[in-house]
Design a protein that fits this description.
It is a single chain. With 328 residues, this protein is of the alpha/beta class. The protein has one domain (4-327): Alpha-Beta Barrel (TIM Barrel). 45% of the residues lie in helices and 15% in strands. The chain has helices at residues 18-35, 56-66, 84-97, 115-120, 124-128, 131-143, 169-178, 193-203, 227-245, 265-272, 283-297, 311-327; strands at residues 4-8, 39-42, 71-78, 102-107, 161-166, 182-184, 215-223, 278-281, 301-305.
């Protein structure tokens, strides 16, 4: 069976706050660990009312204390928002707290509106141009493969698994050049997935960390006891996605029956564009859709993302997905 992992944005539900979101995420991570998922990643997002994962390294520590065996990490840290030395210290600290469990997925996008640049006191587009150099510097701070005039403590010698993230061809090119495992964000940007995977595999150069290409792809996956139940649960995620793409982001709303029927053609098109990388339905439906996706892409691992309003139903969805894949 293909390894399954979980990506969590730490959603804040309507009628609830950040404290509840943190508690929900810890419980969700525990459910993922119990069900047998390989990794549990937190995504860095900023200045978004319905997403509480901005301080990703802090949330990862929270998840680490709530679990004991599952790999934990970032999906990802948007490196242009930071500097390599600080990230090396943060993830070196996480490795010291949770030895052998830490992943560090790196992304190039700033991850928020331009006003974030003012808040961070940075020219993010200019900083993003130095992303490849910053990745190499960060790797050197952790591994010592390049001698630097300063040693990160904690950080140097930490057994952190570095990943390259992306939703375009740039990340695929850089992951191939540096010999890093590669995760494509097809759960929200599926258009270039096949081209990016082909480029990554064709141009991959072995490194000390990885001998051959290893690719993971994101899918939006929500399971219910029936197709109808899963579609209802998924309506919260779909409402959030449409609101975000139409300029009205907010907290995660409760589910709505027959939500897609209420949409305009342009709004419906936003969701249908995501459908090739989504599996929403009963266990049998989810298993079939994931199997078709894996057959088409030949990825080595799937990372699932799916916001559900009811925490119980969200954890149950994880159980149903894993049970379905094991039965397949």
């Amino acid at each position: 069976m293909i390894p399954l992992s979980v990506l969590d944005l730490v959603p804040v539900r309507e009628g609830h706050g950040v404290s509840e979101a943190m508690a929900d995420t810890a419980r969700y991570a525990q459910a993922a660990e119990k069900a047998g998922y390989k990794r549990f990643w937190i995504a860095e997002h900023h200045a978004t009312e319905g997403v509480a994962g901005g301080a990703a390294s802090v949330v990862i520590a929270h998840v680490g204390h709530a679990t004991s065996t599952i790999r934990i990490g970032s999906g990802g840290i948007m490196l242009p928002n930071h500097n390599p030395f600080v990230i090396a210290e943060q993830f070196g600290t996480l490795d010291a707290l949770f030895p052998g469990r830490i992943d560090l997925g790196l992304g190039r996008a700033p991850g928020a509106a331009p006003i974030l640049a003012q808040a961070l006191r940075k020219n993010l587009h200019q900083v993003a141009e130095y992303f490849p150099q910053d990745v190499m510097e960060l790797r050197a701070l952790l591994t010592g493969d390049i001698e630097l005039p300063i040693v990160a403590t904690p950080g140097h010698g930490a057994q952190v698994e570095l990943w390259m993230l992306g939703s375009s061809l740039f990340g695929a090119q850089l992951a191939a050049k540096l010999g890093m495992p590669y995760a494509f964000a097809s759960h929200f940007a599926p258009d270039l997935l096949d081209e990016a995977l082909a480029l990554y595999r064709r141009d991959f150069t072995p490194s000390a960390a990885l001998e051959k290409p290893y690719a993971m792809a994101g899918m939006g996956v929500i399971a219910g006891e029936t197709d109808a139940e899963a579609r209802l649960l998924a309506s919260s995620m779909e409402q959030s996605f449409v609101r975000l793409r139409t300029g009205h982001p907010g907290k995660l709303p409760p589910p709505v029956q027959d939500y897609r029927a209420s949409l305009s053609p342009s709004e419906l098109a936003l969701l249908e564009r995501m459908d090739p990388a989504r599996a929403i339905g009963s266990p049998a439906t989810v298993r079939e859709k994931i199997a078709r996706f894996v057959e088409r892409t030949a990825v080595d691992e799937i990372i699932i993302s799916g916001a559900v309003y009811d925490p119980d139903a969200r954890c149950r969805s994880l159980e149903l997905i894993m049970e379905a894949m094991r039965a397949g």
